[in-house]
Records
---
Amino acid sequence: MSASNVTTVPVALRAFGYDVLVGKGASGELAGLLARRVPAARQVAVVTDEAVAAAPWFAGIDPGIPFTVHTVEAGERAKTLANVGALCRAFSRAGLARSDAVVAVGGGVVSDLAGFVAACYHRGTPYCTVATSLLCQVDAAIGGKTGVDLPEGKNLVGAFWQPSGVICDTALLETMPAREWASGRGEMAKYAFLGEPDLPLLGLEVQVARCVARKAAVVSADERDTGERVLLNYGHTLAHALEAACLEVGGDLRHGEAVAVGLVYAALLARRLGRIEDDRVAFHREVLARFGLSGRFPSGLAGVDKERLLSYMARDKKAAHDLAFVLDGPRGVELVREVAPEAVLAALEELACT
Ligand code: GLY
């Protein structure tokens, strides 16, 4: 794989920074990235999932030094503490040292899991991610949030552990299934309201690079998610509630699909609270339409009790015993606390009826 037209987006952090390489063929830069950023590494543990390992291009992934491949099951069910233990043991058997490197090759699940294993193994081993889904390229791979799920909830165990580098090879997206494109575009759409209003009009490489640069700027300012990083949660309060409700009824809803619905909902709620006008709600719908997304309430959840969704939203990580949302308004998107439950429910009814 030879790299061409690769854009480098820096992520500046207080302790150290790293680069995100974006473009067609960027995965051909992996060996160079590792040599620059983890020069002491003598071997690499590549972590991937069964679906990615079966892709024809996977055989071309070349860390430039000896490597072992560790494959987990595809999908969210791989994000378990059991897999953390299994991977650490496999790394140990492979003789991986703290000065070596872990390379995650996959989507958000693999990057979350492998990043967390890297954070734990030898109390912290360098890792890089080759992000193979759009959602991972524009969000999950950037910013060092790693972790796994518990039966009690998603991402309940994790660590902030920044990668040494990230590769967003847009050529790897060419064979991505339609649902994964929709999911990635749903996540991408949030950036249109975080300073990138023209995003739907751009080509894929520029879109990914712009999203990465936006996320990098937010992460640089608030690495540990104690302030403005919450803005990256735009559209996510209802999205997480829908995902939880969907799990309960055994439905099938991708994260970015849920975010698309959550963005429309956030606009309806903001209008209800007098923060934005009709034209801004229309802009939300227009952005989603340009990304080929309807943002409509999922038909499979039509029967779900709205009070149940409300209770999930009250458990959101932004909430401090209240209902808190990231909402659009005259000053742009910001965190709004103590939103009245009546408004939240009324906006839900409005969303379900449109
Ligand atoms: N996905 C949101 C964040 O990284 O903060």
---
Amino acid sequence: MRKIIINGGRPLKGEVAVSGAKNSVVALIPAIILADDVVTLDGVPAISDVESLIDIMTLMGASVDHDGETLTIDPRGVKDIPMPYGKINSLRASYYFYGGLLGRFGQAVVGLPGGCDLGPRPIDLHLKAFEAMGASISYEGEAMRLSTKGQPLKGAHIYMDTVSVGATINTMIAASRAKGRTVIENAAREPEIIDVATLLNNMGAHIRGAGTDIITIEGVEKLHGTRHQVIPDRIEAGSYIAIAAAIGEGIKVTNVLYEHLESFISKLEEMGVRMTVDEDSIFVEKQDKLKAVSIKTSPYPGFATDLQQPITPLLLKAEGRGNIRDTIYEKRINHVAELARMGAHISVLGSQIIYDGPNDLTGAAVKATDLRAGAALVTAGLMAKGTTEISNIEFILRGYSDIIEKLRNLGADIKIIEGD
Ligand code: EPZ
């Protein structure tokens, strides 16, 4: 089992470039099933979720060429073969294959999705949308069969009871080639939704309103090929900005869209973090005194649930008491016990996390319990005195491309070893 080893306490300096957005590319790839021609994606991050999706697409019959950050996919050989398990269970985003296969073939037999343990992660809203569009649902062992029984998928008026990124995107994908108009009300507004809509529209779809809470899709018969640049990963960007504020002595984070991080940056400014924001980069100066703040996550454009864990080590450096409430995943707290092992004064109290600072962290053997918890432990390890050993690092490698190289370029003493 591989581990990350960090000798902490070293000041970091220099420049780090953010890669393409994981939560966009994991939807863009299955969406390409809808095309009747070749689609090329640029700015694809080097993360294991992309590798898993390439394996699944290839198994289904697509031909895929992966060259650095460029992914060229010809979906014309894709068959609607059952995909009951295997890589499908390795990531939550495999649910996008329901939308892609249903949109193209009117049928999908796909295993139930996997993903990080953040507490219950139902897909009822996805299924409610597919049923509204005429698909029936049955279960076959580990897999779920969605089928329109030979009828075309039809447009529908769908109200999302909960704001859901996945259900919004999945419905948009399936509706792109449905017969008629689909309206999604109470849609999620994340930038990744706009990115998927941009790809689909450039393939010939008619989607309006992506990024607002009402999205309208006029279904079309065919979708053609295109070339698309994946948007920067706002969660990776926020993770590096937190590292820069926690242990940096002047770090420039590049390939950042400020407008994707406004609530995050405003919280850092409230703490007293000094930053210079340019068009596509943020320079973070060395920090001395920081003020403890409280954080409540909410759907975009609110404070992202995916950033409450990566910002926590920085919060631990601040003076005073603060709390964190994740209104999207209340159980997204598994990093707290690991940080406490490093000497942090942090604990879970009911549905919130309470912390008291400032804290001097000490290196320890800790384990990543999910992707963003892992990012928090890397940051804590960089801040801590002594050596930190992080296990279960496959979680981290799912969402942070070239993280070891990027941090070493900033001066970090970090490496991956083959553990026992
Ligand atoms: C996406 O997950 C992201 N993953 C998550 O990022 C992110 O935390 C989440 O959106 C919220 O922003 C990907 O995009 C691959 P949701 P998703 O549907 O789509 C409930 C990371 O770290 N819900 O927006 O699965 C759900 O339980 C990952 O990169 C239903 O009740 O999240 C949650 O409480 C972790 N029924 C809320 O909605 C459904 O059918 C928001 O979930 C679907 C969701």
